[in-house]
């Protein structure tokens, strides 16, 4: 299956809480640009989308859903900045088995996006993700092994 991992767009630096940081107009445009580039790669429809509950991730999904479609969208408390990559990888595997997923998109945060990519691929250091960065991993759920196919950034 293909696992797409996206970091939210650029957000304001200050808000009452980290969870409430909103996207900047530039962050919205960059996320939309990356979504369009992904669509040009031939990917614009996902079986399942997991979105962090943080405002900036929710706003990123709302903006890129202009380009992307999803059979199912779930707000996932496990993919906040301090989520555990191993747990998220297990959850993706379980979802894949239950829902027979061919594709899943996660809209999340640093540092989780880098650690999760490394967890799925194995034998690599966690890559740095710019805001609005997106990777595609071909992931074999049975073998628990993936291959980084490509990455996009604004």
TrEMBL record:
One of its GO terms (molecular function) is protein histidine phosphatase activity. It comes from the Bacteria. GO terms for cellular component: cytoplasm. Gene3D superfamilies: Phosphoglycerate mutase-like. Pfam families: His_Phos_1. Signal peptide: none annotated. NCBIfam families: sixA. This is Phosphohistidine phosphatase SixA. It comes from Vibrio qingdaonensis.
